[in-house]
């Protein structure tokens, strides 16, 4: 672990760690929840994270070793597959487009990239 501007950056999360993210659209409505749980020996090649996504009603949309989640999160392998805390880890627009070709990119995110070019994950 090391500190970046008062925020702790973790390079290895302990077994049992749970990270939950609520995802909102531009109208601030909850559109989904993604979570990752560190479970000992679950999937050693991908750092033992169980990936899960839910709709706002709590229905499970994906769970387990989810390739599409991992494909993106390996970009921050040096932080144990965890991007947080933004905005220190920003994905290039081309990467977002490759994963979500039909989605608009949040203008707030585009502005963050513009103001924090040093934070782009390469
Ligand atoms: C296009 C790349 C991409 C894909 C695909 C993706 N994520 Fe993420 N994820 C990110 C980025 C970038 C962040 C940090 C920025 C943010 O919070 O929006 C993040 C944040 C998270 C977080 C909060 C912890 C952290 O890493 O900061 C969780 C939990 C999470 N994602 C789970 C998932 C799950 C589960 C899936 C698959 C269903 C998934 N993600 C698919 C890019 C991706």
TrEMBL record:
Q: Which residues form the Cytochrome P460 domain?
A: 13-83
Please give the Pfam families that the UniProt record associates with this protein.
Answer: Cytochrome_P460
**What positions belong to coiled-coil segments?**
none
Gene3D superfamilies xref list:
Cytochrome P460
Which InterPro entries does the entry link to?
Answer: Cytochrome_P460, Cytochrome_P460_sp
Q: What is this protein called?
A: Cytochrome P460 domain-containing protein
